[in-house]
Structure formats: structure tokens, C-alpha cells
Amino acid sequence: MKRRQFLQAAGAVGAGLSVGFPNIWIKDSSLAYAADGEIKVGVLFSLTGTTAIVEESLNKATLMAIDEINAAGGVNGMKLVPVVEDPASDPATFADKARKLVVGDKCVSVFGSYTSASRKAVLPVFERRNNLYWYPTLYEGRECSKNVIYTGAVPNQQQDEFIPWLIEQFGKKFFLIGSNYIYPKEENNYCKTLLEKYGAEVVNEEYVPLGHSEFSSVINKIKSTQPNVIFSTVVGDSVVALHRQYRAAGLDPEKMPMASLTTSEVEVAAMGGEAAAGHFTSAPYFMVHESPENEKFVEAYKSRYGADAVTHFVSEPSYFQVYLFKQALEKIGSAGDITPENIREAVKGQEMIAPQGNVKIDPKNLHTYLWPKIAVAKSDGQFEVLKDSSEWLEPDPYAAYSNQACMEDGLKET
What we know:
This protein has 414 residues and is of the alpha/beta class. Helix content is 43%, strand content 20%.
């Protein structure tokens, strides 16, 4: 056969496969997500690098939920198979690993990310491939994507009760300190809106690089401005350094406490209870929360990862979002119908009793109804909840932008 004849024959076969037998290809394409009794899911949390101090626990909570589901029979008889990748706290690596999980491994969903920088890095992958990313972290809002399920708190769910409470308890002068990326800056923008509303003021606003560990200049500015509250959106290893240096400088949390949206039990464990004691955090979940569901969650986590292991307000949604994913799959039913798009539609309005309380995916914006709480850190490494919301709070990812709202058909001007 001459080369031209071979190419023509090959082209005819290719055309026959793609046009003459469409049902075979469509069926195979859909079943790729749920083949041989298995459903592959990606797990994309940093196990190394500056944010591994937090993200390792998110990885653990996710894998624990997957193992629990499989041990109970899986989903409609199918087993969840986690494909774990380490993006090493680097946004570019997050994007590369996300692409591998979606394109190479054909995962039907991926659970991942702690920082907004990493979420922003992977977002184009999921939107381009119409896949689904499950993001468990508190974040700044101002995002409206059909390819992300957001199970962490947005600004209104952490600050609406926290800021007026801090003003009432301590005073109106706030010093804002955060890590230098989008999340702290957007949270601080919302904080400043609330401070203005309640007649308070910002005496200084500082940002430090991710992984920053030298806070002497910040401490000096705190001493000179004498704020009533130090509002912290510092993340990762830097939280530990900031608290230890605050304490070493002789500053007093009874006079000017740090009030954080990002300091959880895992950071407290790393810095030591004495460095954390007397400072405040606002979040939907704390390890000491009393409920049968949380008792079961904490007991299982400690049994699996050790008596000293702690749960916190990002590991908890990392855990419960896997169960919401399971409920969506059960609603879909047939293995051949399991696709990212069908999962997204099935999860809208899904509810479950999580360790923090009953949660629900808002069908309009794919964010989650949560239970705000305010707590103070104790020297034993745990928190004491001082204020617990009487009802769940609707997520408003555009609370800082009164002219915009995330709706089911996209971002709308209001």
C-alpha cells in the first residue's frame, strides 16, 4: 500500500469511528468517571511547603471521609478511589497537578486548596474542562463559578457578628495585619466597611509575604499605635511566628488581643497554648463544639491520626464536603450518569448534619449555609466558645459589594 493510500484508509477508519459509532464513544466517555465499580476523585492539598502545617490536616480529613464511605459499602456499591497529589504550597504546581487529576486521571471531582492563590491557580483548569472543584476553606468571596463547590465560610459568615462584638468588648482602634495575597486584602476590605459602619477606625494596615517569620517591625508599629484590637489574617507558619513574637514582646491580650479569621487549633498546637491564650477567632467550627456528630468526628480523627491530633474549622468542611459529594452521587444513581455537571446539579440544596450543625449548599451560588461562632484560645491548646449563632447564616460571597450578587445563572448587577 502506498503512503497516500494508507493515509486515506486511516482517515476513513477514523471518520467511521467518530461518526459511524457515536453511541459507543459517548457511552465510554461517561462511564470513564465510574468504571469497574470505582469512582476516582482527586485530593489536592499541600503536604510540603509553608501551608502544609494546615493542608496536611485537610488531606487527612478528606481521606478519612473517603475511607468511612468505602467501609460502609461505598456509593451505590461503587468505591471512591482517591488520587493524592502534593502541590507543595505553590500555585503553579497546584495548576499542574489539577490538570493531571482532571485530564490524565479523569477524576470526576477534586477536593483541594487552602489559600485563595492556589484556588485561583486551578480555577481555569476546572472551568475549561467543566470539572468540579470542592473548596473547604474560609475565603474572601467575590467569586462566582459553576465549577467550584464552596464549603468554607465567606466574610459575612465570619465578620458580621465578630466585628461589632470586638468593638463592644475592646474598643474602636484596629490594627490590620495579613499575609500578602488576595484573601487577607479582601477580608480587610470587608472589615473596614464594618468598622466604618460601627464608628471604628484602622490605625495601621500591614501585609507580609507568605512564609514570613520576622515580625519585629510589625510589633514595633503595634506598640506605637496602641490599637484596641489586632485583626489578623496571617496564614500558615507565619501565624506561629507572629504569636510567639507578640508574647516575647510582652504584649497583653487582655489589653490588645489578636482577633483572627485564620488561627485554628492546628496553628495553636504548633505555637503552644501559652502563645495563643487570650486571643480570639471567629469560625463556624471549633473542636470543642458539643454535638453527637462532632463527638464522632473527633473520636474517629484521633483514633486514626493520634491522641494529639486536632480538628479545626477547615478540616471539618474538608470532611463533610465528601459526604455531600456522596449524597449527590446517590441522587444521580446510575453509574453512567455520573459526570461533573450532573454532580453539580445534584448537590444544589443538599443538606446534612455536619459536626458544626446542619449545613446546606445554596443552589444559587454553590456556597454553604454555616454556623458562625466566636471563641477564645486557652492555654491548654483548645478554644472556649463564647458566642454561638442561634441559626445558620446564609452565604453572601459579594457582601462587600452591594451592587453585585452571585446567582444560579452567574454574576448579576443588583
